[in-house]
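Methods — Computational structure assignment.
A single polypeptide chain was analysed. Its primary sequence is given first, followed by the predicted tertiary structure written as structure tokens.
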Amino acid sequence: MNSGEKEVNRMAQAAKMSDRRNWKKLNGKEFNIYTPIAVGVICVVWFFAAHMSENNFLFPTLESVLFKTVDSLRDLYVLRNIGITLRRVLTGTLYAFLVGLPLGLIMGYSPKMLKALAPFINSLRQIPIMAWVPLSIVWFGLGDGPTIFMIAFSGVFTIILNTIAGVQDISKDFYNAARSMGASTLDIVKDIVVPGALPGVITGIRLAIGMGWMSVI
């Protein structure tokens, strides 16, 4: 294994170790004790404030909310609708990934493509997501089509921008080392650009899923 392949493996391993470190923060010395404390304080304040209020319709009690939540999770109708929403979010995120990943890799690797496509990308992402609702209904009709389109549209720019950032964070030494050993453009993209951009891609997917939930209508 040459030095270039070792560096690529190190980058891929670094992406895996980052996720492992995030998981370790859930326990041990790095456990965030402040979040459970904050949740506990909110619950205590909610409990007493709701019982002091005379209007339970506007300010329901904590125990009634918990009871209704548990009761809803046992309702097959609610679970079926949660499943439908989850399917829409994941499908829209998948489409955003399939469109955003190649665009982000191309724009991050090629300065010329970045200059050519950036004005269109920046113009489209400035349009409020709700402005696309009438057009999405005209294009896809009623049903899952408009919702999936809105979810994909809201997440694709996040994936593109984070992928570009991931590619541009790759050290130029990797490219120079690969070219000095006779690597082709395809080899550079496959062995350096894609593995090196993984942290940015993963971050973009995570943010896209969150924005997808916000776009469910």
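Note: The longest helix spans residues 76-109.
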